[in-house]
Amino acid sequence: MDIVEFDPTDPLLSKARNRLMHLVNRRTPTGCWLVKPTGASRAYGRLMVNRDYDLAHRWSYRIYFGPIPAGHRVFRTCRTDNCVAPEHLYARKAEPRTRVAFDRRRTNRPRAKLTWESVALIRASTNTDTALAEEYGVHRVTIRDVRSFKSWVTR
Ligand SMILES: [Zn+2]
């Protein structure tokens, strides 16, 4: 099936597409487009386009389907962390599970609530620390430490 770009004339998207295609280093028989793991999160390709830093699969979604609807997250049907194949991507309303999972007994160990994926999303996000803290059910300082690479750093 031919994949049609959302808007091939958009300069930002075509730039993003070039970057994305450079990151893709393998296509599987099941249709996955695999990107090289980058950055601290390892499994997730990340892409900087102009000053917009985001996960590679989110860029792929924008390139082929258009803007990600507000409050939605982009998932993969193939459940492969580093796949950016547009045919495998779909956006779904983010479930408030992080807030449901918020457990007062764990407030002293906020790190336990984050995952490498959420850390990558936090670092890629342009939201405020406060907004992200609420979204992920952690303290604002936790978000700040993640963003400044004081925590969740691989050595
Ligand atoms: Zn895939």
Automatic annotation (TrEMBL):
InterPro entries: His-Me_finger_sf (IPR044925). It comes from the Bacteria. This is HNH nuclease domain-containing protein.
